[in-house]
Design goal:
single chain
Length: 202
C-alpha cells in the first residue's frame, strides 16, 4: 500500500508541473512560472493578491489587510511554516502554506491554505503549489495527516484536492460569513498510509 501511495503521489506531482506536456486543452501550458519560498520581496504582491475581492471571498481573510499583517503571518523564523509563492515575471500570482501544528499531540498533523489569482486559475498553478507542499509534508516533515477547509461551492478547488488524494470528512454548516450570509465548508484531509516505527523497551 505504501508503494502504491508513493507512486500516485509522484504521478500527481509530475502532472502538476506546468512545463510538462498537458493532455487536457482546458489547462494550457504556461511557461516561466516559478515556485519560490516567500520572501520580503513578495510582500506587496501577497497583499495585493489577497485584497482582490474575488480572492477574499474564497478565504477567511478580511478585505483591505495591511502588508504588515502578512509579514507577521508569514514570518520566516517559524520553522513549522512553509510559505510558497508562484510568480510570473516577478508578479505574485499564487501562494500556498503548510503549517505543522505546535501542540505535541498534534505535531503529526499540518494544515494547508492556498489561493491563485483569478486570471491564472485552471492553468495548473494550484496543482503545482499543492504538489510541492505535499512533497515537503511527506519527505521532510513526515506528517501523518494534512488537513484543510474549502467552501462547498468552490468546485474547482474541491476537484484539485481530490486529485491529490484528499477526502471529504464532513460539511461544516454556517462556517463563515461571506457576501452578507453564511457559507458552508468541507473539511478535507489526506492521511499518509505508512505506519510510524515504534520502539518497545525489552
Amino acid at each position: 500500500l505504501h508503494k502504491e501511495y508513493r507512486r500516485q503521489r509522484q504521478m500527481c506531482i509530475r502532472d502538476s508541473y506546468i512545463d510538462s506536456p498537458h493532455t487536457d486543452d482546458r489547462f494550457p501550458v504556461t511557461p516561466n512560472i516559478l515556485i519560490e519560498r516567500f520572501a520580503e520581496t513578495h510582500l506587496a504582491g501577497i497583499t495585493a493578491l489577497y485584497n482582490d475581492p474575488a480572492m477574499a471571498r474564497q478565504v477567511l481573510q478580511m478585505p483591505y489587510q495591511p502588508a504588515e499583517r502578512w509579514r507577521r503571518l508569514l514570518a520566516p523564523d517559524n520553522e513549522r511554516l512553509v510559505a510558497l509563492v508562484a510568480t510570473h515575471q516577478g508578479e505574485v500570482i499564487g501562494s500556498a502554506t503548510l503549517e505543522q501544528f505546535a501542540r505535541v499531540r498534534r505535531s503529526h498533523c499540518g494544515s494547508i491554505g492556498m489561493g491563485v489569482a483569478g486570471a491564472w486559475q485552471r492553468q495548473g498553478i494550484g496543482s503545482r503549489l499543492l504538489g510541492e507542499l505535499l512533497d515537503i509534508a511527506d519527505n521532510w516533515m513526515n506528517l501523518r495527516r494534512v488537513e484543510l477547509a474549502v467552501y462547498c461551492d468552490n468546485e474547482a478547488a474541491v476537484a484539485l484536492y481530490r486529485k491529490h488524494g484528499f477526502e471529504v470528512e464532513g460539511q461544516l454548516r454556517d462556517y463563515a460569513i461571506r457576501d452578507g450570509g453564511y457559507a458552508d465548508v468541507y473539511s478535507l484531509s489526506l492521511i499518509h498510509i505508512s505506519e510510524p516505527t515504534r520502539r518497545y523497551a525489552i
